[in-house]
Design a protein that fits this description.
With about 240 residues, the protein is of the alpha/beta class. It has helices at about 25-35, 40-50, 50-60, 70-80, 90-100, 110-120, 130-140, 150-155, 160-170, 185-195, 230-235, and strands at about 10-15, 120-125, 145-150, 180, 195-200, 225. It folds into two domains: about 5-25 and about 105-235, Rossmann fold; about 25-105, DNA polymerase, domain 1, CATH 1.10.150. Helices cover about 45% and strands about 10% of the residues. It comes from Polaromonas eurypsychrophila.
């Protein structure tokens, strides 16, 4: 915890989702191997995720108009299938696999941790995922959000300031009364630039056990926690 960075009591905890709340890597491995067991599911998951930022950049640059993440995921999927010998996938298989992002499993601490945090704070998503995706994910995984906010609401992807400041506007609060909870330091840095408090969550296995992340603390964050249960302990929930 960086005590000097917390002059105001936060009222809203806004959560990044992919990697912070849900284990996208293991979930995508499971989904692709259910369709084609011989495929290197780990490499496939990493390749699909690697296309995420370049695809968003096409929208942010104006090359593409506003595009939901579901549709960006499909563009990336179609582009990588031939690399894995899967260009024979039927349209039905492609549609099913593309919605794998709706079926991502939460990390083991998440549901219990969110339930505790919800007892004291309003909890919502702040994800580049679209509303339908996030809602289906929450329904399947039992994620107890008070509100689902998405880049789709603001027609801007993180790290555009419109997303972070948009949460404060939705709840008619000052930015300092909102805390972004995320497992990505770049996301948190952008939120701090907008005046939000920040909590870093360690997810060392986000990219799989073979590619552990550096989860070293950054003193610029208001809080640093191993997982949601540890954050709930720190926030007296």
């Amino acid at each position: 915890m960086n005590k000097s960075a917390q002059p105001v009591h936060a009222k809203i905890l806004a959560f990044d989702v992919f990697g912070t709340v849900v284990d996208w890597h293991s979930s995508i491995v499971r989904e692709v191997q259910a369709l084609r067991p011989a495929v290197d599911g780990k490499a496939f998951a990493l390749a699909w995720r690697a296309g995420y930022r370049p695809a968003m950049a096409r929208v942010m640059s104006g090359e593409l108009g506003w595009t939901r993440i579901d549709d960006l995921h499909r563009l990336i999927l179609d582009s990588i299938l031939p690399q894995f010998g899967l260009d024979d996938f039927s349209e039905a298989d492609r549609q099913h696999l593309n919605t794998a992002w709706h079926r991502l499993d939460p990390w083991p601490d998440v549901v219990a941790g969110l339930t505790r945090l919800k007892s004291r704070y309003t909890i919502c998503t702040l994800s580049n995922g679209n509303i339908g995706l996030l809602t289906n994910m929450a329904k399947r995984a039992g994620l107890p959000w008070d509100c689902v906010l998405s880049a789709e609401v603001f027609h801007a992807y993180k790290p555009d300031p419109a997303t972070y400041l948009g949460v404060a506007k939705v709840f008619d609060l000052a930015p300092a009364q909102v805390m972004l909870v995320a497992a990505h330091q770049d996301d948190l840095a952008a939120a701090r630039e907008c005046g939000l408090q920040t909590a870093y969550i360690e997810r060392p296995a986000e990219f799989g056990a073979a590619r552990p992340k550096d989860v070293s603390p950054d003193p610029a964050n208001t809080w640093h926690a191993k997982d949601f249960l540890a954050l709930a302990d720190q926030l007296d929930c």
